[in-house]
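lol forgot to send this yesterday, sorry. struct tokens for the thing we talked abt
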């Protein structure tokens, strides 16, 4: 055996040993972890909130019947035509999926979904005279579409009262095609998953939600916000909106991860909802529950990705080279954005 063969053999053994360690760490639970997890859920409200989000979000959009309904509702011919046109002259065939995501952002915001500050009056069809007068309980029809609350508006022009149900059923949103950031992210997550795009639902404690997609071309997770038609601009919340934030958590079908460092570049709020070590354990435990039934090859791939992302999240400054987003939030009325502290001031 020559020197090259010896080195090759040693490196192969080391890599295999490393792989075994990674898989053990990623799929096996240590003694006492179940008890620690249950104790956290019983003693910490924020832990219970994250566990509830895990249960409701992580597998929610992996529904082939829903995917078929999405395809029936979208103008696929236009979408693919625009994706193909955007690639004319491009030398990087690998970025086709990224171009598809950008076109879905454009199509969703410009051609498909609408923002609703105030609904049209159901009597006289006006918007400018609509005045919010409180909330009501959903009726039987509204409740079947995961509606927890109904906003009520009084028209100062005709006296009519309009109901605005806040639906959480993404298939119902395919029909209504309107809402605010919750509805936008809910349906757009389903749209991305319908196209087979690896997607994470991003939850911010300070009342905003958006998505991330995994770019095989860029080899990393990329920020995507359908409300803003924003691709790879994670700085917009802290920098452009001047939004203060504490926790930003990513949910997918194979992981739950704290990605706060990607988005909170200034205006960091105090993180006092849970001990940091407990938070790390909690999210790691959730991730293990997803991965224990996956193949070793796939879990090893995910673990290698995780390590690269951890390195990225340790970096300071802007994670993206794109800096063209406008100051202040684009979606929503001026008053609404100001109330939420998202107007850039």
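and heres what i got for the seq, position by position
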């Amino acid at each position: 055996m020559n020197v090259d063969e010896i080195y090759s053999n040693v490196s192969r053994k080391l890599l295999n040993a490393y792989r075994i360690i990674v898989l053990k760490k990623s799929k096996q639970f240590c003694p006492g972890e179940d008890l620690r997890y249950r104790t956290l859920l019983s003693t910490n409200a924020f832990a219970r909130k994250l566990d509830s989000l895990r249960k409701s979000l992580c597998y929610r959009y992996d529904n082939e019947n829903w995917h078929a309904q999405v395809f029936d509702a979208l103008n696929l011919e236009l979408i693919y035509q625009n994706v193909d046109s955007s690639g004319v002259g491009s030398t990087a065939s690998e970025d086709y999926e990224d171009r598809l995501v950008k076109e879905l952002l454009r199509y969703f915001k410009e051609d498909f979904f609408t923002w609703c500050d105030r609904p049209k009056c159901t009597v006289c069809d006006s918007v400018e005279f609509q005045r919010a007068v409180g909330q009501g309980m959903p009726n039987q029809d509204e409740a079947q579409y995961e509606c927890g609350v109904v906003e009520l508006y009084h028209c100062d022009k005709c006296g009519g009262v309009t109901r605005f149900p806040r639906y959480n059923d993404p298939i119902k949103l395919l029909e209504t095609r309107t809402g605010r950031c919750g509805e936008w992210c809910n349906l757009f997550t389903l749209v991305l998953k319908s196209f087979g795009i690896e997607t994470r639902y991003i939850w911010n404690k300070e009342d905003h939600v958006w998505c991330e997609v995994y770019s095989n071309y860029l080899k990393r997770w990329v920020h995507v916000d359908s409300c803003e038609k924003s691709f790879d601009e994670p700085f917009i919340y802290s920098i452009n909106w001047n939004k203060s934030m504490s926790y930003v958590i990513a949910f997918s079908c194979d992981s739950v991860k704290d990605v706060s460092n990607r988005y909170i570049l200034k205006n960091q709020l105090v993180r006092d909802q849970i001990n940091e070590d407990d938070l790390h354990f909690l999210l790691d435990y959730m991730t293990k529950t997803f991965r224990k039934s996956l193949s070793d090859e796939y879990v090893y791939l995910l673990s290698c990705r995780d390590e690269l992302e951890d390195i990225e999240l340790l970096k300071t400054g802007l994670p993206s080279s794109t800096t063209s987003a406008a100051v202040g939030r684009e979606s929503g009325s001026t008053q609404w954005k100001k109330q939420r502290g998202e107007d850039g001031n």
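The longest helix spans residues 3-27. anyway ping me if u want another try
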